[in-house]
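Worked Example 4.2. Consider the chain below.
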Amino acid sequence: RKSFFGLPCRPRPDATRKGATDGPSKASCRLRVIPPVFVGVGGTHRRHYLREMRTPSLLVKNLPLVTSAVFRSSLAAAEEQAVRQWCSSTSKGSTGSLSSRSALAVWSSSFSRRPYSSPSGGRSTSSHSPSQSPIGFVGVGAMGMPMCRNLVDSGANVVVCDTSEAALQQFEREGVRVARTPAELARVPGLKTVISMLPSAKIVESVFLGDQGLLSVPAEDLQPEFFIDCSSTGPECSVMLQGVLDGRNREAGAGAGSQLEFVDAPVSGGVPGAAGATLTFMVGANSPESFARVEETLVPVMGKQAVHCGSTGAGQSTKLCNNLVLGITMAGVCEAMALGQKLGLDLENLSKVFNSSSAQCWSTTIYNPCPGVMQGVPSSRDYENGFLTELMIKDLSSAQQAAEGAKADLIMGKLANELYQKSVPRKDFSALYKYIYNGSPCK
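Applying the procedure from the previous section yields the following structure tokens:
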């Protein structure tokens, strides 16, 4: 990595090495400053940078040059003041203060509208400041917690709702507003958007349609109008809930103002992707405008990209197909790794071959199931804190149901589902390697 005014950089493809770190030369103008570091978005990376940054004064000193060279524009006076305030508080060791967070949010808001700031090809303008309308977040489990943390750390005015009292109390201690029922969340003044990340279709339906659900609130008191469900539920649940909202819209009539809308946006990337804000959102939205609103809300704060898959339910259908491939390929990788071990192969070398040949896939490069081959994945911690086997069984079963309705054959998916059902519950789905194929850790 190169350095530009003390900030880590990567040369863009057309950049030349000569003069790449010599200030705002023609070559350095083509440097791309890593967005999570310089732009101030991407919660986990930004928090890491705030803790480790040693020379904020260097940024302040060269601020006009940095902004003009990299972004070909300069900061407004208020934005520059916010950056200087943030750098000043950082240099005094107060990186966790509200003032520094607020200043950073303003800076993020400014730069997220400039070139190179969006991981979604520059389309997204996602940025949040505490003065914005509140956003509801329902479900802070293994996936929802890091997603919600990234949203909070972006400066958004978040209201958290969950059944875990311990989780809510933790957020309250941090100064984040909470709601103890979906109905309470739906009454928060000014709250227009609700994001949900929940374990199953049954729980999603309860959150929306239960006695204390979001839609239990009378129309005149209901605040949110835009619902983004990131859960993996299958298309039927999403289509049904959009139908319920369509009925509410018809009852309210044309003169009722904003229309209620449901969008499905399940994710790929797992817990590591949620923590690192590198998720991919598969979006089922009924219009380009609705998709743009989803992308603006979710990217890059919680993910690296959003893909418009079609109308309501298409995101869930895409997720079913994606996880069908994931379940099958993970079973194949577990089987091959266990075979390689029994043949006396070095599993690290075997993994290197996989990753540079035709066996390469997400399960080999990002989520290796063999303990000792890769750090920071569930196999390195006895298959804890990952994508539960029960959830993979749920997704494969949903894929089978969808296939039956579409009169499609699911031969490999059915066999993979049977393997996962024989595995150990409450463990990551990659535990097939240990509990089905009797694989041992890499030595």
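The longest helix spans residues 314-342. The mean pLDDT is 80. Compare this with Example 4.1 before moving on.
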